[in-house]
Amino acid sequence: MSNQRADAVCCPTPPLLREPLSAPAAADMATKFKALADPVRLQLFSAVASHAGGEACVCDISAGVDVGQPTVSHHLKVLREAGLLTSERRGTWVYYAVVPAVLHALSSLLGAPHGAEAFVAADV
What is the CATH number of the domain that holds 75? Predict the structure, then answer.
């Protein structure tokens, strides 16, 4: 029998994060993931992120979901309060934009390399 531990890894891999999350950082990230845990919010977030420049009018992103306008507004508010989106009123429309630094932080935490190809649901 070998004296080596059975769980030893033959090829060490570098850590995915530089350091563990602090309690405040973990709470902040948990808030963001909780906001994205709802299928409608995830769909709305991906609709904004997939538009050119990561910005879209509420009229464009609400067309693809099967809920009413008040529900869309509620979900967008949750995403905005979680720090995932910003909003700006232009005339009668509200435009939402993804916060790039937050998207990068979420990607890093999930182990996606910076600049990785866009996520496609069919890849799952």
Answer: 1.10.10.10
- Greatest alpha-carbon pair distance for the chain in Å reads 75
pLDDT tens sequence for the chain (124 residues): 555 555 566 777 766 566 787 899 889 989 999 999 999 999 999 999 999 888 999 888 888 889 998 999 999 999 999 999 999 999 999 999 999 988 888 887 777 655 444 444 443 3
Domain that holds residue 76: 23-111
**Distance between CA atoms of 110 and 113, rounded to whole angstroms?**
9
Query: How many domains are there within the chain?
Result: 1
Whole-model pTM over 0.85:
no
